[in-house]
Amino acid sequence: MKVVKISDVTKEAYVHPLFTGKDVTRQVLMPESNEYDINIVNFGKGVRNKFHAHTREQILIVIAGKGIVATEAEEKVVKQGDVILIPANEKHWHGAVKDSEFSHIYVMKTGAELTQLEE
User: What is the 3-state secondary structure (H, E, C) of the chain?
Assistant: First the structure.
C-alpha cells in the first residue's frame, strides 16, 4: 500500500499546446500505478484546455476553485466536491473561470490516447 499526501507532491509546469495559457501545473500522484493515470491539474484564472477527446473514460474530481466543463452541447460550472464522468471519445474541454483558479484530480486508465480537436 502507498499513501500520498497531496501537499507533498511537487507542482511541475505543464506546458502543452492543449492549454490556452501557460499558468498550468501538474502533480503526478501515483506514478507507480500500472493501471491508472492519476494527476492533479491546476489552472490559473481563465486558463482552460482546448476541445479534445480521450480514447477512454475520464473522471474529474474538483478539489479547488471554480471551473467549467464543456461539450459541444453544454457548459457546466463546477466547484470543489463535484465529480464529472466524461465518456470515451466525447469532445470536451475543462478549465478555470475568468475570476478563479481551478484544480481537479483526473483519473483515467493508463494507455488512453488524447486527440486535440481545437487549434
Answer: CCCCCHHHCCCEECCCCCECCCCEEEEECCCCCCCEEEEEEEECCCCEECCEEECCCEEEEEEEEEEEEEECCCEEEEECCCEEEECCCCCEEEEECCCCCEEEEEEEECCCCEEECCC
Give the separation between CA 72 and CA 77, rounded to whole angstroms: 15
d(CA 105, CA 95): 12
Rounded to two decimals, what is the model's pTM? 0.96
The domain locations on the chain are 6-112
> What is 6-112's CATH number?
2.60.120.10
Query: In this prediction, what percent of the chain has a pLDDT beyond 90?
Result: 100
Q: Provide the residue type at 11 as one letter.
A: K
pLDDT of residue 55: 98
